[in-house]
Amino acid sequence: ITAAADAWARGAAALPKPWQPQKPVLPVEGMRNVLITSALPYVNNVPHLGNIIGCVLSADTFARYCRLRNWNTLYVCGTDEYGTATETKAVEEGLTPQEICNKYNAIHADIYRWFDISFDYFGRTTTPYQTTIAQDIFQRLLAHGFLLQDTVEQLRCEDCQRFLADRFVEGTCPFCNYEEARGDQCDKCGKLINAVELKNPQCKLCRGVPVVKPTQHLFLDLPKLEERLEPWLEQSWATGDWTANARYITRSWIRDGLKPRCITRDLKWGTPVPLDGFRDKVFYVWFDAPIGYLSITANYTDQWERWWKNPQQ
């Protein structure tokens, strides 16, 4: 309180001059360097106030605070553009997935600009850097033995000549008999569904009846990480600032044992899988999208690794 009163008495002229970072903003030796990202808003709709409050506003507030503290601050964000929801929206509007992404990325950018959200850079995930970085991470996982192959039973529409992603299937819920359940969830009873469990399934694209067929997919071999993950978590819980909810969820995953996680999908719209036998598939959006934080920074500056691979600063 004494220090604050003293600073107030000396007036604004005595305040340190605002830090003016170089462009592009890069880490500076000897300064506090802060990289801020907002959760990437999905590109298939017009953002509303809930999106702004729940997604970009809190990060914007923190970015402004950091700049007022004269910390060297980079704030990046962008639209999340791959996945089934984009394909579905493209079918609804009679556009290609790329046209949908171009349309809604521009809408998002305009709205955040109108709200004066202080991004240093607002990008997107459908870029060459996204492909390069995601495929590089995949190749490293493959080289270190953290991937495995397995066969999955999946619905295939013979009329459309394609395996159907969950959102391209509708049918009767096996739990409550709701007749418009999706291939991933029933909106009436709320239960998660495996698409092959649906009764009377229909292809949403042509209304044909799909058949169950086997298809090969790639999985993250998460059980291999358990031995290394548990001591890391114990150390992180002791030294970090985890919420009670985050601790509880993570403990439940460890308690139940990690399971292999599928990272590929039989879709056209996504980052291609660079492996023979899987080149007609793309990466699952939840493998691909988090890498968007790196690729968006890479589109901002070719020295992006100074932000993402520099723990000393």
Automatic annotation (TrEMBL):
The reaction(s) this protein catalyses: tRNA(Met) + L-methionine + ATP = L-methionyl-tRNA(Met) + AMP + diphosphate
Residues spanning the membrane: none
Keyword annotations: Aminoacyl-tRNA synthetase, ATP-binding, Ligase, Nucleotide-binding, Protein biosynthesis
InterPro entries: aa-tRNA-synth_I_CS, Met-tRNA_ligase_1, Met-tRNA_synth, Methionyl/Leucyl_tRNA_Synth, MetRS_core, MetRS_Zn, Rossmann-like_a/b/a_fold
Domain Methionyl/Leucyl tRNA synthetase as annotated: residue spans: 34-311
GO CC term (a single one): aminoacyl-tRNA synthetase multienzyme complex
Annotated Pfam families: tRNA-synt_1g (PF09334)
One of the record's GO molecular function terms: methionine-tRNA ligase activity
GO biological process, any: methionyl-tRNA aminoacylation
PANTHER family for the chain: METHIONINE--TRNA LIGASE, METHIONINE--TRNA LIGASE, CYTOPLASMIC
Family per record: Belongs to the class-I aminoacyl-tRNA synthetase family.
Entry-linked NCBIfam families: metG
Name of the protein in its database record: Methionine--tRNA ligase, cytoplasmic
Natural source organism: Aptenodytes patagonicus
